[in-house]
């Protein structure tokens, strides 16, 4: 399904696009060796409950290019998704997350929190994804309940029966599934009903203007309600102000993630902050 991604792109050409294209070609090339050259790492962004108790963290991939400097995942993930490279990157992030979860078993303050990883549609498309997940979890000996997979609505454009089947298999393993960037993509209530999501993650764009835009406010209120009616936890991402947080808590939103409470940070920093009881 992801093979269709390259179609319908613009065909006209101007000099600025040439520079853009050269950069993309260079980055796509360099991405192949970024992990082995030690240019990539993950950062952790904490997720809190309404009382600001730590529940877990989201793993976010970082890449520092030797000449271009820091490259946003918004730029390099789509490049990786054009090829099977996203599978390699995804496997690496999974390994990192499992390694952390194992190490944290001996740190009481971190022994029960979860880690979330972002998974691209292209990874789920891979027929061996579920089997490889089983093998990886077993090799690390971690409880699947401690790992959460964040999927975006883009998984819905793929072969639905296959995707639905795989997601149920992942859920049956004990992993929990989170619907990331909810409200921005292709999801319909039919999909949400069919798929075993345990969490809805409200997209940042609805949170931004929550205090000032009454439509956004009502939309968020509705999503929280919808999630709860369907037995799901509801997460707000991109929470930047106290007033946004207060509104979300009033609405009963279960999980708060955003710069207000914590930015993504290196693993060592995360352990320093949260590893002591
Ligand atoms: P996402 O999964 O929706 O992650 C949330 C993004 O919002 C992160 O951007 C995070 O740094 C940012 N963010 C968190 N709190 C705030 C806030 O209060 N304000 C603002 N303005 N931004 C906030 P980041 O790290 O740049 O990642 C961008 C996207 O790249 C992610 O969006 C995710 O879709 C993708 N991504 C990152 N790491 C991975 C990965 O390992 N695999 C895959 N497939 N995608 C990844
Ligand atoms: Mg995410
Ligand atoms: Mg998101
Ligand atoms: Mg996103």
UniProtKB/TrEMBL annotation:
Domain spans labelled EAL: 24-277
Protein name (record): EAL domain-containing protein
Entire protein: shown range: 460 to 736 of 736
């Amino acid at each position: 399904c992801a093979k269709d991604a390259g179609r319908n792109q613009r065909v006209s050409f101007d000099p600025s696009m040439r520079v853009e294209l050269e950069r993309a070609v260079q980055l796509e090339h360099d991405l192949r060796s970024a992990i082995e050259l030690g240019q990539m790492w993950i950062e952790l962004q904490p997720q809190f409950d309404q009382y600001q108790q730590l529940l877990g963290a989201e793993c976010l991939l970082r890449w520092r290019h030797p000449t271009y400097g820091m490259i946003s995942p918004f730029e390099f993930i789509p490049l990786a998704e054009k090829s099977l490279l996203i599978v390699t990157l995804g496997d690496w992030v999974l390994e990192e997350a499992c390694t952390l979860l194992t190490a944290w078993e001996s740190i009481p303050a971190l022994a029960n929190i979860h880690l979330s990883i972002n998974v691209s549609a292209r990874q789920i498309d891979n027929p061996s994804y579920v089997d490889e997940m089983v093998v990886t979890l077993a090799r690390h000996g971690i409880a699947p309940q401690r790992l959460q997979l964040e999927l975006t609505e883009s998984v819905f454009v793929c072969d639905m029966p296959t995707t639905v089947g795989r997601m149920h298999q992942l859920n049956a393993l004990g992993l929990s599934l989170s619907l990331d960037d909810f409200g921005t993509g292709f999801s319909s209530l039919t999909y949400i009903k069919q798929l075993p999501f345990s969490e809805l993650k409200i997209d940042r764009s609805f949170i931004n203007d929550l205090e000032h835009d009454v439509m956004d406010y009502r939309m968020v209120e509705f999503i929280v309600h919808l999630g709860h009616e369907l037995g799901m936890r509801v997460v707000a991402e991109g929470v930047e102000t106290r007033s946004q947080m207060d509104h979300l808590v009033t609405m009963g939103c279960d999980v708060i993630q955003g710069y207000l409470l914590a930015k993504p940070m290196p693993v060592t920093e995360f352990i320093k902050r949260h590893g002591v009881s």
